[in-house]
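Data availability excerpt. The first of two example chains:
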Amino acid sequence: MTSFLIEATDMTPGIKFLPEKLEFEISGESRPENVRKFYEPVLEWLESYKNHLLTAKPNHAEKLIFKFKFQYFNSTSAKFLTSIIGKLDSIKEEIMPVEIEWYYDDPDIDMKNSGEEFSKMFSVPFRFFSTPNM
């Protein structure tokens, strides 16, 4: 399965999906002008990756750790993040363990609260990390 990489901009997050290393990260700011156009390829890649895992029969001792490191995301982006976490939740339920690491700037309690709200919606476990000046 090929990697999926998008460089961060002032308006869009960086996407780093390296399946061969089991490294998955979305970071930065998410307020693209066309949120659907930005996130649909991400969702399509995750669906392809899920299908790949179904046929590859991964080692169940392995775990996907998916990192979210946002400074900001708008409400429209939140809808797509819900879809992304939903896909991760289905991978956890059907294929292999998945864990989400949610990073937030130390003083940004709103970002922590957003992660906590997402964690209540799905069965995939979340771990929260406060970082100074992310």
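And the second chain:
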Amino acid sequence: MVAPASRFDSVASPVVEFRSVSKSYPIYNSPADRLKELLTLNRIRRHTDFWALRDISLTIQRGETFCVIGENGSGKSTLLQIIARILHPSSGDVCVRGRVAALLELGSGFNPEFSGRDNVYLNAAILGLSSSEIDRRYPEIEAFAEIGDFIHQPVKTYSSGMAVRLAFAVAINVDPDILLVDEALAVGDIYFRQRCMRKVHELRARGVTVIFVSHAIGDVKAIGDRTLWLDKGSIREFGATDGVVAKYLAAMVEKDSAYLELKKPEPGKKAPSQTAPEIVRTIPNIDHRYGDGRAEVLGINVYDAFGQQAYLLHPGSRVVVRISVLAHEDLALPIVGFMLRNHLGLDFAGTNTSREGHDLPPMTAGDIFTVDFHIDLPELYPSTFSFSPAIANGTLHHYKNCDWIDNALTMQMGHSDGTVYGFLHLPCRVELNACLASKAPEQVLG
């Protein structure tokens, strides 16, 4: 049950308190079974229970940024929906104190037939604001959303990014005591995500409790005071963010390694030959693309040292970044390269064929080149990194871009064996160079 605020009152009451909370969903083999169970007088059980949450006990303090991590299906969204009072627990007690603003499933709480402006007033009214309060805050909401004249159009005409912009603008401008964010920011562009993260820091400084669910481990480490790791509906780890994240990433690396073991060729079978690599024609994502069109990037992929496709980057390992390009016109001095960006959208590192002293031969229209960049990864902090491939024509100091794709491939950096302070660990050799304290002062000076 969801208890009234006075139920768990104490001298220093947390804003959210769970006591042995579990949530189950009935799973039926067919719709007919649901109807039969409903109509049968002796209530013959025709379903099985799926436990999304099992025996969750926790407290979240006022002003804390509390993060929740875990694989898909681990119960993260169910936890937030119980805090938002959208769902009720199957057992246990929940106490939530204060106004809750929730940014959960994309577009949740919006009527698609209403305009953005109408939805702003509707959502704010549901959260308890008067008409005069909404009138006063509306200009700030409209300015933060930055969707222009679309604010007057039906929400059903919005892109996913526009919908989340408006939803976040409403959530942060209704003076919430608790802000719930569930992966919705993942659909926003880098510029908007950076603004949102700055706003989260502002809310923290004002004493707002932020409960943040994300697969972006870099964001979790940047803002989380404490972190909960859910695994199949149960608490796996709970405590200081750095410690919980380190254990989570270690478990994911171990799981990925086990998966790659299954993908290895059977004994006696030859691994695919790497002497004539196939043309890469996969571009998982295009945030922005520009160039003069004289050539194009056909695809980009990352492979491990064994020539297998990499799904996770391991600090200290060797990878191959493979880029295939196609010339539409003759290029006298083609250059192929990429930029590596971190989770904040900052250009972290980059290189190209010319920078590495490997000048490519001229390309004629119709030529396809596949270029491999063999990279020894440094010890980087666990986060997401994106690759932006490109082809240009010219010299290193004077060239024209033919094709550039922003954030074409994004990959997670695994956990290092040691602690990474800051963004990366510098290769270092330590020597002891000191005077012994046992010597007399005059010996040391003389």
